[in-house]
Predict the 3D structure of the following.
Amino acid sequence: LISLAAGFTDPDTLPLAEARDLLSEVLASPRVGRSALQYGPTEGLPALRRLTGERLLAQDSAAAGASPARELYQPERVLITHGSQQLLYLVTECLCDPGDIVLVEDPTYFVYLGILQSHGVRCRGVSMETDGLDLRRLESRLAALKRRGELGRVRLLYLVSYYQNPTGVTTHFAKKTAVLDLLRYYGRAAGHTIFLLEDAAYRELRFGGPDVPSALAVGPHAQRVIYAGTYSKPFATGVRVGFGLLPDLVRRAVERVKGNHDFGTASLLQHLLARALATGAYDRHLVELRRRYAGKAEWMAQALRRHFPPEVCWREPRGGLYIWAALPRSLPSGPDSLLLERALAADVLYVPGRLCYAPDPTRRAPNQEMRLSFGNAGEQDIRTGIRRLGEVIRTLLTRVRRGIRPAGRPH
Amino acid sequence: LISLAAGFTDPDTLPLAEARDLLSEVLASPRVGRSALQYGPTEGLPALRRLTGERLLAQDSAAAGASPARELYQPERVLITHGSQQLLYLVTECLCDPGDIVLVEDPTYFVYLGILQSHGVRCRGVSMETDGLDLRRLESRLAALKRRGELGRVRLLYLVSYYQNPTGVTTHFAKKTAVLDLLRYYGRAAGHTIFLLEDAAYRELRFGGPDVPSALAVGPHAQRVIYAGTYSKPFATGVRVGFGLLPDLVRRAVERVKGNHDFGTASLLQHLLARALATGAYDRHLVELRRRYAGKAEWMAQALRRHFPPEVCWREPRGGLYIWAALPRSLPSGPDSLLLERALAADVLYVPGRLCYAPDPTRRAPNQEMRLSFGNAGEQDIRTGIRRLGEVIRTLLTRVRRGIRPAGRPH
């Protein structure tokens, strides 16, 4: 089976030698080594919090071509977690009660939908454009919630803002500003802060086009921005180190819950990352990584151009791990579709797009999309997998044209 | 300030050279190294799950002098977590709803009380004897809950069964059997399983006396035993790897929630521990560790014999990190006590015993005990700290004898 479904990173990019050297250096010094093997502060290793704040400030400064407010990047605002996934969980646990509402992109990162569901939170999807959320849809959503008296239950808007999982879309900076303006306006009407949870998990997996400043750089809205980032995906997913930059009140609440969860992120992992950042090993690795993913994305794009019929819409990725392909509406791709069945019979797996849509009873979710990952598979598997999928799609489209309706619900 | 409060382990015992060699070996092999730097299964690394089950089976067999049911130690029953703290959290999240009741030892591990509180769970304390829970009190507690129709809300009994934090008490095996019999009886009356959550965090920090089999070895009760263990405390607290052995239904639920929390424990940490266990490095380290803690416990015991007045009751530890000292009732030790104030003025800190009692409005908790840790402090600090505390206690006891009541509530 060729899996184009897994969100795993490329095994060939894993920094074995670098990690070995860095860990050896960390443990060679009795002072640093002891700190790496002992409990640390729940909020994270001071050096890593500082390096994280500085790094993000530098990224946002470079992307914005101007210097954002330095105080938003202070180490005190940084919390280190076991992957950014843990930060998403903690934030949701702290901010949401059962029955509360969270706004998500349509489609969005499906694992976060699981987190929301486990907290009994209701999801409301907002459809997307090629540069991020459809602002008019967001406004009409919020206005409708206000009309129905449900604005008081809206806690946050979750945005995967860079090379989104699953669509690959990056949110334009102007949209972040506009989104925050809307959240401020409706937050006032709600009588509480509606937060923007910006999930920047794929930001550093950028291989085409310029960087975009984070929502922190919008400035006057800092008290409603929660920024989630990760070192795991770019460096090594087996080293679970993520981070958040949070408004003070939220940070303190999240830190308390983090203490209950696990007392803080494993010191050894934090020291490894701090050293990788401080020595430049992390950035050198990033150069290699981007070159590699750019190549893999191009193999997939070549194969798609060659093997997928022109009715299928997709765009060349500029970062991340995914290509999102939209089939004609007549060709469902969902878990119970003939397409998935045929793809599996041809030994190739994709993520049905349907799974990336929140369970939102107030709108119909599309059912003819697929998420294709070039992260984990090698060149041959990418080419063969796309060829096989293309064959299955062409065969089924021919049936559709002949008037034979494929099995599976259109929605 | 000399802190005899922190539950940190001894910095001199941290295995710097061993960790360095083991990590270097793990990352030297491309196959193993890649697995260490990549995502792994949510439930944990197969090799570590197997080693964990085998290790526990060997421990229980040796302690029981007989072979417990092997199927209870199968790798499928093992879940690896970011420290055993995370397991406690996940189990509580899965099994308890707000308003539910959890039975705890009086006193108990205060961080677990925080977990219970954060889930809105009500605590009911059961007082202890020198070999574990007072069974008559446990039975009368359960009987009272039954009479009041609250048995349906009782989810689990939490037992820190080896060198308990904070008292140092180890639960006798016969008591585990009796406790499980009671839980079965009252579980039937409740109409659901009441679980025994056995927290064995200190089991491997044993330096005197024989090992005791776990509650798993009781056998017929396996479906109500959840066993939580850890490699962090014995090996290195900066390497957060704990584990649970769980009944199938609970394991599956906990695994699902663990997936939402963080996708699984960092592979690098799991490989480090798996290699430490497989090569014998872990067990060699344990020999050193036990020798070291035995020595530190003896320093503290010597100092206590010398500097504490005979009115203070305490017992020589046979494992763990703590000595529990009970003062006369006339001398409160709580957070607002004159004793704590004077101790801080003398630059020495202990954990007020009061903090280790659950917020249980149905009984009065004692307020004249202190938890003294010999884990983190060095020899000189242990001796000086205890001498200073002894002086403060003697001074205040003299005042009490003269009829001057120390500040602070007796309860």
